[in-house]
Amino acid sequence: MDYLMIAICSYLLGSINFSIVITRILKGIDIRDVNSHNPGASNATLTLGIKWGVVIFFLDVLKGFIPVFIIRLVFPENDILWFVAGFFALIGHAFPIYYKFKGGKGTSTYMGVVFGAYPLVGLILFVVLVAATTLSDYIVVGTVFLIVPPPIYMIVTGQFHWISIALLSLFAIINLLKHSNNFIALFKGEEKKVFASLKKKT
Predict the structure, then answer these.
(1) By CB distance 3.0 to 4.6 Å, which of 42, 91, 119, 167 could disulfide with 139?
(2) What is the pTM of this model?
(3) Using an 8 Å Cβ cutoff, are 132 and 142 in contact?
(4) How far apart are CA 192 and CA 35, in angstroms?
């Protein structure tokens, strides 16, 4: 019963899409119709500018952080429950019931899940994400450096149950698959650069 209730509550929380809500309020448009068509923090940054992009980024992070952090406090010895909460928050973001199961890629929420499980690792990943994105000028490059390391870390440290590793690894694969068009555009030289896009907003 614990698993089912945690999964349902986390999924419903994850299904709230702040990119769609805030873009509609501020611009009266559907963010899924502009730029990359992805209802996530990266497209919100390209559409609304850096200020609102950062706000939405942190709101999406909280969707992953809050359920994992709470479950970690209540069940400190059961990491499977932590990642059940995190996984279903991620699934909610990627396949939200409120928006006909068409959601974002889950990168920011993924970081929130990791941050909720291990704050220090989450902080390091945030620095890596910012550095990789800044140096490459591509959000998708920063995403790879954010998404790939956590499952590897979990395997190497041996501190987590295999189910926890499997859940996070599964969503890492889902996230990378959702970025397939970005990878194709990157290799073709057609992917939008972060700073060039932001300059157009100023």
Answers:
(1) 42
(2) 0.88
(3) yes
(4) 9
Farthest CA pair distance, the chain: 51
3-state secondary structure labels for all residues of 70-112: HHHHHCCCCHHHHHHHHHHHHHHHHCCHHHCCCCCCCHHHHHH
Under 8 Å between Cβ of 120 and 188: no
CB of 59 within 8 A of CB of 43?
no
For the stretch 25-66, pLDDT in tens is 998 888 988 877 888 887 888 888 889 989 999 999 999 999
User: Which residues contact residue 180 at a Cβ distance below 8 angstroms, ignoring those fewer than 6 apart?
Assistant: none
Number of helices (H), then strands (E), belonging to the chain: the values are 12, 0
The count of residues in the chain is: 202
As given in the structure block, the two tokens for residue 27 are 């611009």
Amino acid, single-letter form, for residue 190:
E
Residue 38: φ, ψ to 5°: -90, 125
16: left (phi over 0), alpha (psi -120 to 50) or beta: beta
Q: Which of 46, 21, 50 is nearest to 35 (CA)?
A: 46
Domain ranges of the chain: 2-201
